[in-house]
Amino acid sequence: IAKKNGYYEVTYDWRDSLKQSPAYYECAMAIDYAKEVANIKAPILAINGKEDTVVTPETAQEIVDASTNPDSQVLLLDGADHTFCSPAMTPFSERSFRTRLIGSTAPCNLR
């Protein structure tokens, strides 16, 4: 399809579709992500929504596993999708998210 049209059309259930060039995917597939993550010396906080269907929650653990910093960790958000704004995301999980990241429980206006 991409060779015929010059692009891939990627559809999502949470946003309008995107037209992306084959070069985007060729570049992305050529990167050794584990090697790149291992080069990061700072601790990594890999955040993922448990309901994410675009980047699965297992990806956050793979990132932390590739990290060389023992303080790296995973934060999975209950009810959150790829944008962290699923209707299933409860006020409790939003408070947990904000507390963990910025030390505040002020209302999160992510929607």
Indicate the topology:
Elements (H helix, E strand, L loop, with lengths): L1 H4 L2 E3 L7 E3 L1 H9 L2 H6 L6 E5 L7 H10 L6 E5 L13 H12 L9
Parallel strand pairs: 3-4
Antiparallel strand pairs: 1-2
Description:
The structure is a single chain. With about 110 residues, the chain is an alpha+beta fold. Helices cover about 35% and strands about 15% of the residues. The protein has five helices and four strands, in the order αββααβαβα. Helix 4 links the parallel strand 3 and strand 4. The chain is flat, with a radius of gyration of 17 Å. The relative contact order is 0.14.
Task: Describe the structure in brief.
By secondary structure, the protein is of the alpha+beta class. The protein has helices at residues 2-5, 22-30, 33-38, 57-66, 91-102; strands spanning 8-10, 18-20, 45-49, 73-77.
Keywords:
single chain; 111 residues; alpha+beta; two-stranded antiparallel ribbon; two-stranded parallel sheet; 14% strand
The total beta strand count reads 4
Mean pLDDT: 80
Order of helices and strands: HEEHHEHEH
Main sheet strand line-up:
1-2
Percentage of residues assigned to helices = 25-40%
Radius of gyration: 17 Å
- Judged by helices, strands and strand pairing, the structural class is alpha+beta
Terminal residue distance: 34 Å
Low-confidence stretches: none
> Strand fraction band?
5-15%
**Biggest sheet, open or closed, and with what strands and sense?**
2 strands, antiparallel
Shape: flat
Count of individual helical segments: 5
